[in-house]
């Protein structure tokens, strides 16, 4: 198969990653007291994950953002047992977390065709309810999209992520499977505290299998009034932002792409950077304490590249594929070992 790269560019002017909707299960049908007939149950509201669906498309199709299931049929002389109301199925993107207004998590939909019940229909009228029906569940829910991708690009603005993604998208080496790459908005210092929509960025990082740090070999400066950061300081800051947002991200598998190797003196700067990465503790004294992460990122691979000239792009792609395959194999092996342990315990108990 050829290599494919799906570009998820989050431009907040047109991208929606959170939507609040109203859902209501159908009311049950009336019972028939004289004949002892039972009303039909109200329909349920289900969320169904679809590959090509987006929250923006959902909102555009249903601007009222109200989803109500059908009412159950009343019991009658012709049909003593009323039929169940029609279910309401709401197509949503895959990779969403569903929560109530109070923050309680209802569930998650990670794969296409996953289904989640969000509002049950009411019971039909019967002898126990004096043949009166009950209403269906009614609630406001949040659909919170967290991109699921194999690789998430992590880097400050001007690191060259967009150019890199363009190069990757046009590469077609023969490899075993496709890779999905999420290009996320430029991270800035203080993202963990929600500066520059930081939480919107970091929550998407959580659901990528592999992080790809992208740094400018020549260093980075956000604005004329911001401090200049070397490539080494950039890596340390990125690691700190991830750590402050969620500690579990400290140990997430990561690669490092050192970009803009086409610039003058890039090789000298790379050599200095590599020396710093090999012995990071020797260079920490130059940084403020609040910049230093508790755990220094241990990159599986460090690949010098130029998104401008294409240098190192093919090697980077192959490294990503190799790491993803290794992690997939490890996951399968861990699952098999876990099943074996369960089998041994069960056999011992018997």
From TrEMBL:
Gene3D superfamilies attached to this UniProt entry: GTP1/OBG domain, P-loop containing nucleotide triphosphate hydrolases
GO cellular component, one term: nucleolus
A single MF term (Gene Ontology): GTP binding
Predominant place of localization: nucleus
Presence of keyword Nucleotide-binding: yes
Nucleus in keyword set: yes
Highest taxon of the lineage: Eukaryota
Database matches in InterPro entries: G_OBG, GTP-bd, GTP-bd_Obg/CgtA, GTP1_OBG_dom, GTP1_OBG_dom_sf, OBG_GTPase, P-loop_NTPase
GO BP: ribosome biogenesis
UniProtKB keywords: GTP-binding, Nucleotide-binding, Nucleus, Ribosome biogenesis
Residues annotated as domain OBG-type G: 149-325
Subcellular location: Nucleus, Nucleolus
Domain Obg, chain residue ranges per copy: 13-148
Family according to the record: Belongs to the TRAFAC class OBG-HflX-like GTPase superfamily. OBG GTPase family.
Protein's UniProt name: GTP-binding protein 10
Gene behind the chain: GTPBP10
């Amino acid at each position: 198969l050829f290599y494919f790269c799906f570009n998820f560019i989050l431009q907040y002017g047109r991208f929606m990653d959170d939507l609040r909707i109203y859902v209501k299960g159908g009311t049950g049908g009336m019972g028939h007291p004289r004949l002892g007939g039972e009303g039909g149950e109200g329909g349920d509201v289900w969320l169904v994950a679809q590959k090509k669906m987006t929250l923006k498309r959902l909102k555009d199709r249903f601007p009222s953002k109200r989803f109500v299931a059908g009412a159950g049929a009343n019991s009658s002389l012709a049909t003593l047992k009323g039929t169940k109301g029609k279910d309401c199925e709401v197509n949503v993107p895959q990779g969403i977390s569903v929560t109530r207004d109070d923050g309680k998590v209802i569930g998650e939909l990670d794969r296409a065709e996953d289904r989640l019940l969000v509002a049950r229909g009411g019971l039909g009228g019967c002898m126990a309810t004096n043949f009166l029906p009950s209403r269906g569940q009614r609630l406001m829910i949040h659909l919170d999209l967290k991109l699921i991708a194999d690789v998430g690009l992590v880097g400050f603005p001007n690191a060259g992520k967009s150019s890199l993604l363009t190069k990757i998208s046009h590469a077609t080496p023969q490899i075993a499977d496709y890779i999905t790459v999420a290009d996320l908005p430029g991270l800035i210092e203080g993202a963990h505290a929600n500066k520059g929509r930081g939480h919107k960025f970091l929550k998407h990082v959580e659901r990528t299998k592999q992080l790809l740090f992208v740094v400018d070999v020549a260093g980075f400066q956000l604005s004329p009034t911001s401090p200049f950061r070397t490539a080494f300081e950039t890596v340390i800051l990125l690691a700190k932002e991830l750590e402050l947002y969620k500690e579990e991200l400290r140990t997430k598998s990561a690669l490092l792409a050192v970009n803009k190797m086409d610039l003058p003196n890039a090789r000298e700067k790379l050599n200095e950077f590599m020396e710093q990465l090999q012995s990071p503790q020797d260079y920490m004294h130059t940084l403020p304490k609040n910049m230093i992460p508790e755990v220094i990122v241990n990159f599986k691979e460090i690949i010098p590249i130029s998104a401008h000239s294409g240098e190192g792009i093919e090697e980077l792609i192959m490294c990503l594929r190799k790491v993803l395959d290794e992690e997939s194999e490890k996951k399968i092996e861990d699952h098999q070992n876990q099943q074996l342990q369960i089998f041994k315990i069960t056999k011992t108990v018997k």
